[in-house]
Every structure is written in structure tokens, then in C-alpha cells.
Amino acid sequence: MKQVTLSVLFILSLFVCVILHEFGHALAASRYHIHTKDITLYPIGGVARLEKMPEKPMQELIVALAGPAVNFLIVVLLFILLRLTKLPADFSIITHVTPENFLLNLAIVNGWLAVFNLIPAFPMDGGRVLRALLSLRLNRVTATKIAAIVGQTIAIIFIFLGFFNSPFLIFIGLFVFLGAMAEAEMVKSESVLKGRTAEDFVMKQIPVLQTTDTISKAVEALLNGQCKNFLVLDGNAPAGTLNRDGIIRALQQPGAEASLYSAMDKNLGYIEAAEPAEKAFVLMQQYKYPLLIVTKNNQLFGVIDMENILEYIMVINASAVK
Length: 322
Ligand code: ZN
Fold this sequence. Notes:
By secondary structure, the chain is an alpha/beta fold. It is 56% helix and 14% strand.
């Protein structure tokens, strides 16, 4: 077999292992009735997007460990296979893949994948393991804060070592540093929203436009008011949303005299007024809704603008007793 074919085959096998790792998380999550939306592969690994993160420490621990456990399992299976096929297990030949060392190499890389993912730093699985373990004794916000500090310390060590060894370490360090920061912010926001409902954030003065309005009318509304996000109605029924970027884009194509119907974003998100504010926040982040429509008794009640929630979180954080 040609070297190129072999290398491609090796990379494909590796991708399969990464996918199996993500399936491990998904399978563990499904035990707690948490569904997985999709699995995305990045150059540095995969991400299984769960519908929500398990908040019970033991559940988070098991879901986080399930991924690396799959890689360890693959290592064990490959070693059994190596035993059965009696292929030479020569550790000295790992610079390039040969038919003889293919399985051994795959086992070694899987071992690394498991170890790498267990580094106790967000967004690695090890960060979640650490947070879950800390959560057994501490509250979730404090546990996340400590886990984030540990993660960022490790990230700084990585970046530092990267300068002397490999630029790849700097890259991983930055990735981990930002991941830890985002996780800490996310949990802080969640705790601020806890106990509040969508109704607490609703804007009853809805900035509206009609589907039959022209783009130039939308531009006018944008320039005259403070609103950047508009709800587009078809009569009385919500038909779409339009944000500032959308309006500016529509001005170029299809042009100022076109109707909003062709320019608006037709994806609408709804939430009941009594539902938790946290859900609104998650929905808007996940689907990138500029506005979320709030209903009460099946009637249009108002909208939630992401900026309102963020401002609220900032105000609460700023006035929190330190
Ligand atoms: Zn994982």
C-alpha cells in the first residue's frame, strides 16, 4: 500500500475514534434524558452539543468521563487485536505509519487523546471532571470559578512552554484560556438569571415593521430610534426579524425599494412568559435569535432583546456584594 493511502487511512481512523469519543458523551447524557443536538469535528477534536449540561455533579462527572473512557476502551481493544494478530509491537517506529505499526500507532494516539482530554482545564473534559468533583462540596458558581482558575493556570504554563518548544502548545494554551473564561462567564450569567422568568426581561414596546414595508423604511426606523433589532409582522402575526446588519445588507441587495419580506430572517423563536429566563438566554445564544418572541396565553406579549439580558447581567454583577 502506498504511504499516502496509508496516512489518509490513519487520519480517517483517527476521526472515527474522535467521533466515538463524542458518542461516548452523548450516550452517557442520554442516560439522564439529555439529547445531543449534533456532533461537530474541529481540527483539535470534536464537540457533542448537548441540549443542556447536566447540573447534578455526579451526572456531569459521568458524562465528562464517558468520552475519554471510550478512547481507553479503544486502546484496550487494539492491544487485544495486536495480540491476536501477533503483529510486532515495536514502539520505536512511530515516525511514520506502516502496515505493521498501524494498529499500534492508533492505540498510542488514542491513549494521548484520552490523556489530553483529561487535562483539568475547560473546555477539555478534565475541566468538567474537576468542576463536578468540586461541586460535590461547593456550589456550582464557586466550583466553576476554581476550575476556571486551575484551567487558566495550566493554559499559561502551556503558552510559556510553547515559546520554548512548539507553537502548537501556544495555540492550545490560548484555546484553553479562552474556554475557561467563557465557561466561568456562562455559569455566572446562569446564576444571575436563576429564579427569574422570561417576563422579567420582556420589552413591551416592540419595535415593529411590516412585511410590506420597504427596506428604506427600515433604514429610517434604524436611524430614528435606539433599536437595532426589529420584529417584522404580517398583519398582526410575527413573520420574521430584522437586525441592523440585515438591513444594511438588504440595502445593497435587493435594494432600498424591495419589501422586507425578502430581507427578513424568517427563523422565529418563541417562549412563554412564565418560562425561566435561563431558557430564553440559552435559546437566543444557541439559535442566534436577535429577538425572542414572548407569548402569554397564546397572545403576543412582547420580545426579549439579547442586549437587555446582557445589560441586566452586567448591572447585577456590578452591584453584587463582593
Ligand atoms: Zn470529550
